[in-house]
Amino acid sequence: MIEKAVLPKEVEIQEQAIVILWDDGHRSPYPHRFLRLRCPCASCVDEMTGRPRLDPDTVPQDVSALDQMQVGNYALQFLWSDAHYTGIYPYKYLISHCTCIVCAEARAGAKDQAGESNT
């Protein structure tokens, strides 16, 4: 069975966060710096190891998205106030990093279950 992709219905850059309303009705808030520090581009993440290359101390505390654009039918790209713009954030990546209470609790529950199965 083919899984239907969830697409952004609306992307709003607010003062404190980027808020994405997905077409399934889910609302995902992303604090600006939270998302900037998770940039998946090759400058920020080592392509071979997946280890972060970005030093968090080099990203201003008040960094914010200034603009955004859709990339194909699979991702968003942001222009950040620190002049970084090469990161492409696939929708699946954004959904997996949602900071809403429901998603945070689900991730915590999954970690708890994984920990229980390892004991």
From TrEMBL:
Keywords of this entry: Iron, Metal-binding
Q: Which InterPro entries match?
A: GBBH-like_N, GBBH-like_N_sf
Gene Ontology molecular function, alphabetical:
metal ion binding
Which Gene3D superfamilies does its entry note? 3.30.2020.30
Q: Does the keyword Metal-binding apply?
A: yes
Task: List, for all copies, the residue spans of the domain called Gamma-butyrobetaine hydroxylase-like N-terminal.
Answer: 14-94
What is this protein identified as? Gamma-butyrobetaine hydroxylase-like N-terminal domain-containing protein
